[in-house]
Design goal:
409 residues; Aspartate Aminotransferase, domain 2; 2 domains; four-stranded antiparallel β-sheet; binds pyridoxal-5'-phosphate
Length: 409
């Protein structure tokens, strides 16, 4: 019989040797966004719907791609990313957003999380000022924290990032003798609050960036998943002076496991990102599989996904309102994307709600995860993307009852 040997797993003291970058935030605790270990209702992370992954289509695309590309698919790739994928991204932008760019504008990365990290690495040093939304996507926030900037949070309302508050922050930074490095904004179905940045504010943001001589990092992960309303022009398309960088991803329309995202930027800037990447290009094999699949199927597949996610949003909203009608709760109704943002009734005992949700095994993300400083104590974010509509309805009813039960009366 084979005896399994367990080896000790010692770690020599390494903390003193860590780089300055690695020491930023080292040892601090990041508040957990996932308090329920094995949820019955997974409304926590922005996970795409596994039932709608194109399993057969990807197998077929892989075979077709291997027949056509053979060894090219399995060797090192272009440092900027597989050209076919960069062309496909240009087509996607033209088709859905009327945005004209060339493959020379696109830099492929390991998901848009890594793409955003490249932009932060290229522009942001510890202690330097940067403007972000409050609330903003928790993943980006943790990413930004690792770069150690001084964060200026500006509020988000029904029209997205409040540009008058951006101006106030830019003015404050200028008066302190400094210059804002980046303004980071999530323009479509803002994560977590839900609104699109209005066209007027998109224009204002560019005017502000020009006036204060700074750059805008426009994050769009969800534009194609629009259930209602018209798509708005990307900030990138409105810019005339080349001061916008745009991040995108295939995670939400193909599968987060393909780990393919990108930055779209003026070509002269791309070497600044490449300097923080590894050799060999990002995932040349999977870039080809994704390209072969999406070339033939993108529009039809996205159409299916829009129907899938709309049904989930509607089911979740129905469950919430059936139980919470008559309270002073505020519930967003996003026109697309993955998330519902809730301002809990004023009487809610948030700790009690957490306990009740834990017992019912309903996962959600507490609002505090989306703020750099204080804020969000009375908010929670629900993702409707992962569970099927019947579970979105059932789980949101259970959670809404917990919200009522957590009311201090
Ligand atoms: C607004 C936003 N940006 C970026 C990302 C990162 O996505 P990925 O790294 O999977 O491309 C997400 C994922 O949830 C997101 O919601």
């Amino acid at each position: 019989m084979l005896t399994v040997m367990t080896t000790p797993n010692p770690t020599a003291r390494f903390e003193d040797l860590l780089s300055t970058r690695a020491r930023i935030g080292w040892g601090g605790s990041v508040p957990t966004a996932r308090p329920v270990a094995k949820p019955l209702y997974e409304f926590g992370g922005g996970f795409p719907d596994p039932a709608s992954f194109p399993y057969d289509g990807l197998v077929e695309a892989t075979r077709k791609m291997m027949d056509a590309e053979g060894a090219d698919a399995l060797t090192y790739g272009d440092p900027q990313g597989y050209r076919g994928l960069r062309e496909l991204i240009c087509h996607k932008y033209r088709f859905y957003e009327n945005l004209e760019v060339t493959p020379e504008n696109i830099f492929v990365a390991n998901g848009s999380g890594a793409a955003l990290a490249l932009a932060f690495s290229a522009f942001v040093d510890p202690g330097e000022p940067m403007i972000i939304e409050a609330p903003t996507f928790s993943g980006s926030l943790n990413n930004i924290r690792r770069h150690g900037p001084e964060i200026f949070g500006v509020p988000v309302d029904g029209q997205g990032m409040v540009t008058s508050a951006v101006r106030a922050s830019l003015e404050k930074i200028k008066r302190s003798g400094r210059r804002c490095k980046l303004i980071y904004t999530i323009v479509n179905f803002q994560n977590p609050a839900g609104p699109d940045l209005s066209i007027g504010r998109r224009r204002e943001l560019i005017e502000l960036a020009e006036e204060y001589d700074t750059f805008i990092l426009e994050d769009d992960a969800y534009n194609e998943l629009r259930f209602e309303g018209d798509s708005k022009p990307p900030v990138y398309a409105l810019d005339r002076t080349g001061r916008v960088i745009r991040a995108g991803t295939l995670s939400k329309i193909l599968g987060a496991g393909v780990r393919l995202g990108w930055l779209c930027a003026p070509p002269a800037m791309l070497p600044a990102f490449q300097g923080f990447n590894f050799g060999g290009g990002v995932n040349p094999f999977m870039s080809r599989v994704a390209t072969y699949f999406l070339r033939d199927n993108m529009e039809a597949h996205v159409k299916v996904l829009v129907g899938v996610y709309r049904a989930k949003r509607d089911a979740m909203l129905r469950g919430l309102w059936e139980v919470l009608e008559g309270t002073d709760v505020e519930i967003s109704r996003p026109q697309g994307g993955f998330f519902i943002w809730i301002k809990l009734p004023s009487a809610t005992d948030v700790a009690r709600l957490e306990q009740l949700a834990l017992e019912a095994r309903v996962q959600y993300t507490p609002g505090g995860a989306f703020f750099a400083g204080t804020g969000g104590e009375r908010h929670i974010r629900l993702a409707f993307s992962y569970e099927q509509p019947d579970k979105c309805y059932e789980g949101s009813c259970i959670l809404a009852k917990a919200i009522r039960a957590a009311g201090r009366s």
